[in-house]
Amino acid sequence: MRIAVLHPGEMGSAVAAALSPSGTVGWCSAGRSDVTRRRAQEAGLEEFTALGECTDWADAVVSVCPPAAAEALAADVSGTGFRGLYLDANAVSPATSERIGALVADAGATYVDGGIVGPAPRRAGTTRLFLAGERAGEVAAWFEDGVLDTVVLDGPVGGASALKAAYAGWTKASAALLTAVRGYARAAGVEEELLDEWDRSQPGLRDRSDASFARLLRTAWRFEGEMREIASTMDDHGLPADFHDGAAAVYRRLARVDDADDDPGRVLDRFLEP
Amino acid sequence: MRIAVLHPGEMGSAVAAALSPSGTVGWCSAGRSDVTRRRAQEAGLEEFTALGECTDWADAVVSVCPPAAAEALAADVSGTGFRGLYLDANAVSPATSERIGALVADAGATYVDGGIVGPAPRRAGTTRLFLAGERAGEVAAWFEDGVLDTVVLDGPVGGASALKAAYAGWTKASAALLTAVRGYARAAGVEEELLDEWDRSQPGLRDRSDASFARLLRTAWRFEGEMREIASTMDDHGLPADFHDGAAAVYRRLARVDDADDDPGRVLDRFLEP
Which of B154, B164, B170, B250 is the best mutation test for A, with the most CBs of A within 10 A? Predict the structure, then answer.
């Protein structure tokens, strides 16, 4: 198997490493950063400098990129005439996933819908790739010898994206809510009193809130788009989109906090700046 | 001390019972239900049939009612010429609390801002009344011998309402988010797969979600207004109001589920009906 991973960012390079036992993994360096190149080299990926060369070579393409870029990447790959197997593993809504599936199928490729739950996998058991679509079982087989666990879903394309949306719809939106509420308490002058009350009646919540800042600051830049995708799929089902619109607004604010400072008070002060 | 509790609902009657060691507690039966009368009688409260008689008799009025009714109740009490101490212990925004404070002060009464965190108190340690305002310490003293703990906040009127808003802004909005997300997963056909993933990577979340339904169904009717108050105070601080607008929408839907059925699947099916 020859598999192209587009692109080997933090998650993509870990997915590529998990694929290595099953075949040769390539990537396309056009327009990518030096950080991405270093990751690709460390993972031993075969470099292509043009997308067309990469997709001509590949039997399969695995798309791992920020959600807002997923559709454009599928269009670029389709534009090269790629007719192999195309896996989108991004945090997009089921509707976006279905559009991507139609787009790559029109160009002659076969589509598999994916969704990754967990951190970039470095060891077994931390992270699962959910898969849906006719050839989902085939994709799962590529990962049999790596550290990324797979779960094949019954049902049509879109299920893996729905599962991922529901999962992140709690984890990332609840983290954003916790930030917003603690930020409110700070702005209203009752943060210490709130933390004292949490210590009495919500054990663990102070620590959960403190610990979330360092993590959120590193990843907030790509969560805004993911929250917008979830808001859109909630709305598609006639459910309130507000929670995830609010979470998108929180992550947009947190993405501005670009220093590495993870002191909760200082992060909140920056968060509260208009 | 003669203290009028308006009104002895589930929370109000427990607050009245916590006050009994410090004085005589009265209530006003005009327009109240038989359930409320039974609660008031069981708590040994002195009945007044007209609000003016009740407030003429009382040294202090404690307002415990749904947030949407708090301002009108303060206006009614002020309309009787009440000039004692007025405690609003409702889940209103700090801005609403400040308006109520101005209203009762204009009529000659003294205002204390309150916020209750926890269930209706039946035993010590479960529930705290936060208090803010010049005579907050005096109010705290009334509760010294009862099961309702008090916390006097430094700072002006509004702080107790802010503390309560921040606290419920997490607990009730996160419960609403959990309901919305699980409802989404059910609608999208991946609820079982989501619960399986929660069991793997979010231990306790399935049980938390299951357990919340019975509790939410009983109380959803009065949470919508509380969520609107919190949305408004978030907005006052330039923070996203969306989370609590979404939570208000969830509680409005849950309030329709009027049967006592707490099977999670059946509750979610009713919740998902347009």
Answer: B170
Measure CB to CB from residue B242 to each of A117, A169, A242 and give the nearest one. Answer: A242
Residues A170 and A110 in one domain: no
Domain total of chain B: 2
Q: Please report the number of interchain residue pairs, chain A to chain B, with beta-carbon separation below 8 angstroms.
A: 169
Quote the CA–CA distance of A116 and A160 in Å, as a whole number.
9
Nearest CB to A180 within list B117, B200, B240? B240
CA angle (A67, A72, A78) in 5-degree steps: 125
Domain, as residue range, for A239: 162-272
Residues in chain A closer than 8 A to B153 (CB atoms):
190, 193
Instruction: Identify the CATH number of the domain in which residue B245 sits.
Output: 1.10.1040.10
* Same domain assignment for residues B65 and B122: yes
**Shortest distance, CA A82 to any CA of chain B (angstroms):** 30
Over residues A181-203, mean pLDDT: 97
Do B167 and B146 fall into the same domain? no
Are B139 and B216 within one domain?
Answer: no
Helix (H, G, I), strand (E, B) or coil at A156: coil
Given A154, A188, A215, the domain boundary residue is: A154
Residues B150 and B167 placed together within one structural domain of the fold: no
Distance, in Å, from the CA atom of A125 to the CA atom of A92, rounded to the nearest integer, reads 23
ipTM value, please give it. 0.95
pLDDT digits (tens, 9 = 90+) for B155-205: 999 999 999 999 999 999 999 999 999 999 999 999 999 999 999 999 999
Amino acid identity for residue B231 in this structure: A
A53: CB partners within 8 A, 6+ apart: A28
Give the end of a domain, one of A98, A129, A154.
Answer: A154
Q: Letter for the amino acid at A125?
A: G
Report chain B's mean pLDDT, rounded to a whole number: 95
Residue of A181, A208, A237 to mutate, interface with B, max B Cβ within 10 Å: A181
Q: Give the nearest partner residue to B166 out of A173, A184, A247, using CB atoms.
A: A184
Name the residue in chain B with its Cα closest to that of A209. B170
At A77, phi and psi to the nearest 5?
Answer: -65, -45
